């Protein structure tokens, strides 16, 4: 099934907060790329999200109008930042260290100029 909303959302970080954001955006009908620097972290996050969405659906608390399987089909993981943000309309990130991506330029400033990014949300 195709996402019900246009555009792709990228969630930077697949920890507890990133996982929650991914579920919120998927529940809203958006395609979501979950980015992290460690593949195992992404794999764990996707497993957690699957389990959590199934439990929420079972208890009648799943957000959105789509069932868990449809929402889960909107979420994927990526370990390459450039690939993750390609085509994104929104980036949601919670970064403890703005230079964590190995650049002298803080993360937000590296992507603000890209015309395909309509909004970038970070907490530094």
TrEMBL record:
Gene3D superfamilies (alphabetical): NAD(P)-binding Rossmann-like Domain
Molecular-function GO terms, alphabetical: L-gulonate 3-dehydrogenase activity; NAD+ binding
Domain 3-hydroxyacyl-CoA dehydrogenase NAD binding: 8-91
Example GO BP: fatty acid metabolic process
PANTHER family: 3-HYDROXYACYL-COA DEHYDROGENASE FAMILY PROTEIN (PTHR48075), LAMBDA-CRYSTALLIN HOMOLOG (PTHR48075:SF1)
Designated name of the protein: 3-hydroxyacyl-CoA dehydrogenase NAD binding domain-containing protein
Organism: Gopherus agassizii
């Amino acid at each position: 099934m195709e996402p019900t909303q246009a555009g792709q959302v990228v969630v930077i970080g697949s920890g507890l907060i990133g996982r929650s954001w991914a579920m919120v955006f998927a529940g809203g009908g958006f395609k979501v790329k979950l980015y992290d620097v460690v593949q195992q972290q992404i794999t764990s996050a996707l497993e957690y999200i699957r389990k959590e969405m199934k439990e929420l659906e079972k208890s009648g608390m799943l957000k959105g109008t789509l069932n868990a399987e449809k929402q889960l089909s909107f979420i994927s993981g990526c370990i390459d930042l450039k690939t993750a943000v390609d085509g994104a309309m929104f980036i949601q990130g919670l970064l403890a260290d703005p230079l964590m991506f190995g650049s002298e330029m803080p993360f937000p400033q590296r992507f603000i100029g890209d015309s395909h990014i309509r909004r970038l949300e970070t907490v530094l």
